[in-house]
Amino acid sequence: MAYDKFVTLKSTAYPLPIENVDTDQIIPARFLKATEREGFGDNLFRDWRYNADGTPKSDFPLNKEIYSGGKILVGGRNFGSGSSREHAAWAIYDFGLRCVISSAFADIFKNNCLNIGVLPVQVSPEFAEKLFDAIFADSKTEIEVDLPSQTVTLLTTGESEKFEINSYKKENMLNGFDDIDYLKNIETEITAFASTRPF
Amino acid sequence: MAKTLFDKVWDSHVVRSIEGGPDVFFIDRHFIHEVTSPVAFLGLESRGNSVLYPERTFATADHNTPTINQHLPVEDPLSANQLDALERNAAKHGISHWGLGDKNNGIVHVVGPENGITLPGATIVCGDSHTSTHGAFGAIAFGIGTSEVEMVLSTQCIMQPKPKKMRININGKLGLGVTPKDVALFIISKQTTSGATGYFVEYAGQVFRDMSMEGRMTVCNLSIEMGARGGMIAPDEKTFEYIKGRALAPKGDDWNKAMAYWKTLFTEENATFDIEFNYDASEIEPMITYGTNPGMGMGVTKSIPNASEVEGGVETYKKSLGYMHFNEGESMLGKKIDYVFLGSCTNGRIEDFRAFCSIVKGRRKAEHVIAWLVPGSHKVVDQIKAEGLDTIITDAGFELREPGCSACLAMNDDKVPAGKLAVSTSNRNFEGRQGPGSRTLLASPLVAAASAIEGVVTDPRTLLVG
Ligand code: SF4
User: What is the value of pTM for the model shown?
Assistant: First the structure.
C-alpha cells in the first residue's frame, strides 16, 4: 500500500507511559472483522479509551483535550508486543498518528509500522523519560522527528538524540515507496531462485 | 565458519542481500486465514498483481469460526463476510482452501504439520504471530503483518533483516506433571515478554530431544511470547517419523532426497550464538500465570512476587495485578475459577487431550465451572474418538466442541465474561484477550484438568499421584 512520505514531523505528543502495551490493547480482536483497512482509528485502544457503556474514559491520554491533535505517541518499553495484527498499526495511522516513540519495540509491530508509513523511533530509556517529563509538565511540548538526520529533538530544551533505521527502510519512508515496488522489480531474480528450491 | 541450524536454513533462502538493509527472503510455504488476508488481496488487486505461486499458499478458516453447529450458516454477518472473502480469494487465485466443515479444516498451525506442509529446512510465514509453532520441525517460521502477506502473495518473498541468534539449553528429566507448556512458561518467566526481542531461538538439550513432536510444537509456538522472532528445534528421527506418509509430504524419490538434506540440519559443534542460556529440568514445576502477560508466570506452588522484586515498570506491574484483582504475595492455589479452556494452537493437539483425560478420567467436572474443550482440527477430533477419549470427556461431565481458535482470541462467541476467572491452555493472558474484562490464567492441560475437576486452581500432581 503506498503511503505518504515521511521526512520531518513537528508535533505535540500523547504520552502513554505503560510498558508491554500489546496489540490486543491497541486494537482488540473483536474489531478485526473488517475486510478493508479503513476506520480502525475509532477503536484504537478501545478498552482503555471507553467504558463498557461506550462513554469515553476522561483520564485516558487519547481522550484528553490538552493532547488532542498530536501526531506522535510516546509509549512505554516493549511497545506493540503480542499479535502480528497489522490492524494495530492501521489504527494508529487512522487515528492521525504518524510516529511512535518508545525505548523498545516488539519486532513484528515495528515492521508493520514501517510498512504502512508510521515511523517507529527507538530512543534510550533516559530520553524516553525526558520526553514523558516534558509532556507531563506541559502538554503543548513539541517534539521534532527528522528522518534525514535520524534525530529526535525535544524542542523546549533542544535536547536531541539519534535513532537507528536501516538505510533501505529510510529511503522507502522518505519517498513513500514500499517493499512490493522493490520486489516486483527483481521478479526474474526471484523466479530463478524459486526454481532451485527443493520443495 | 561453523554454522548453526538457523544459519543453514536462513542463508539458503536469501535471494539477495541489500547493503545496509534487509535480506530479500524467499518463503517456501505460506498460510493464510480469514482475518489477516482480505486486505492483502485488496492490495494485490488494486495494484493489478497476481499471485506468483498459488501452490505455495494454503488457506484455512479458523480465527472467526463458531465451535458449535458448524454445519449451519455462520450467524455473525461480519465473520461470515470474512470467511466468504477467504473462500472467494482462494478460488479466484487458485489457492487451496480448507473452509468450515472441510475434513482438513482446523487451526492453521495445527493443520500445517498434520498435512505434511510443514517440513524441516523450509521457510514458513503466516499473518499470525504463533507461526513460530512450525519451528518444531527445524523450519524457520514466523508471523508477519498484512502488508507482508501481500508481498508473499505477489512475490513469494519478504524483506527481513537476519535476526540475532539465541540458544536455550535445558538438560535433565522433567518431573511428574511437568509438560512442554510448563517448560515454555518457565522460559518466558525467566526471559520476560521482551527478553528475546530481535533474536531467533534454538531450543537444545535432552528435554527437547525427549519431547514428542506435539510437545516441541507447544514450545516453539510460545517463542513469540518472549519477543523472539521464532524458535526452532533440530529435526531428528521423531521429526521424520511424524512427517512420513502425511498427505502433502514428499514421497518416493523426493522423500529420499529430502531426508538426505534434512539430516544436514543441525547446529555444528563450534558454531556460536549471540547469547545462550542454560536451565535444568529439575528447576521446572507445573506453571501458572498471575498477570496480564505470559512472562508473569510462576510455579503453581509459588506466590506472586512483590513489586519491589520486579525489575522496572512497578506502575505497570501494579496495574496488571489490579486488573487481575490479585495482590502481591498471594498464591494462586485454591482460587475459585469460573471457566476452563482447553485448546488453541498451543495446546489443542491430541497429546493435550490425552493429558487432560489422564486427570479427568473417572472424575466429575466441578459443577460451577464452564469448560470449553476445543480440538485444534478435525483430525484431532477423529483421533480423540479413535482413542475413546470422547467417552472419558463426556463421562466426566464435559462436552467436546468443533475445531477453531475459539476462546484463544475470542473473536467468535466463546468469550469469557468480564470479571470471570479462566484457566486457559492458550497463549495469551492480555487484558481482555478472552473477552472484554476477562481474567486469564495460562497453564498446561494438566493444570486445566485438575482445576476443572476441583473448581479451584489445583496442582495437578495432587491428582496424579495415588
Ligand atoms: S489459536 Fe490463537 S494464537 Fe493460535 S492461530 Fe488461533 S488465534 Fe492465533
Answer: 0.96
